[in-house]
Description:
Number of helices: 15
Largest sheet: 7 strands, parallel
Number of domains: 2
Number of strands: 16
CATH architecture of the largest domain: 2-Layer Sandwich
Radius of gyration: 19 Å
Strand order of the largest sheet: 3-2-1-4-5-6-15
CATH topology of the largest domain: Dihydrodipicolinate Reductase, domain 2
CATH superfamily of the largest domain: Dihydrodipicolinate Reductase, domain 2
Distance between the termini: 44 Å
Structural class: alpha/beta
Strand content: 25-35%
Amino acid sequence: MKVLVYGAYGYTGSLIIRMVESYGLVPILAGRNASKLESFAKDYPYESKSFSLEETDKLHAALEEVDLLLHCAGPFMYTAKPMMEACIEKGVHYLDITGEIDVFELAHDMDAKAKAANIMVMSGVGFDVVPTDCMAAYLKNKLPDATHLQLAFANLGGAISHGTSLTMVENLGKPGSMRKDGKIIAVPLGHDGMTVPFIPKDIYCMAIPWGDVSTAFYTTGIPNIETFTRVRPQTHKMVKRMRPFNWIMRSSLVKTIAKRQVEKRPAGPNDEMRAKASSHVWGKVRNAKGEEVKARLQVPEGYTLTAITALMISKKVLEGNWKAGHQTPAGMYGQDLIMEVEGVIREDLP
Length: 350
């Protein structure tokens, strides 16, 4: 079962390639940097192909050899659209590991074209957004008339990869997002904060524009959605104080300096750090009568989980378990998709 893995030599892509054999998949290693790809590919017995997304002929030729693309090269705000369009043109299923709201909305906008091409388009097959999407579906099934959804996540231990950091840099100075009455609206970043009872301990979280603002709506139909992540309370206060200066944060000079700092850091957490770390998800739904249902998850460290769920879903698709059009992870595979991952704990809260 062949899959084209674009961005194979990146931090998350390399984790996926290290695990791919155990899922019975045969990857073609691909990426835009020929020297990085060559250096990476020499350690594996797999075919490799180097091309940029502007080299349309090479991209199309590579897609003709596979039934599925697993796209791991971000920031996806720049790379997702040409990849989705190429997959639609060549009749190849599209998966990616993004967490970017605009990319999820783009995938949804591709629904009709994907159905016409008889392929599935699914963004967010990693930590963004599999566990949170499954939590949203789980809570919706427990309270079918829910009108409001809150989701929070926290990573304990580990570190952030270059790819995640560069995406964060691209979003410097931008507002937050939430879904209100079915529409995605801009709100001040960190417009809300709360202490969340994750499985190991209570942790303070700040509202951020996480991918579920998009995907959870398509999975559950819940019209009001907010998403939160772990921060220090003093960080939240600083975010609020910085709002008048967001225009400076959006400048190319600030972003260039930030990117240089990212490149000085390790590519991501090492194996020992990932093994010791864990990730946590909490969710709450509420209906018009004020009834609430809450639950929480403990899952493997985020990058480890991304590699596992990306390969799980890739295998399902190549075995014929897919639907044409835009799909979300839990919308397609159900609330218990995350429970297929070894070591996951799910608890209901009173």
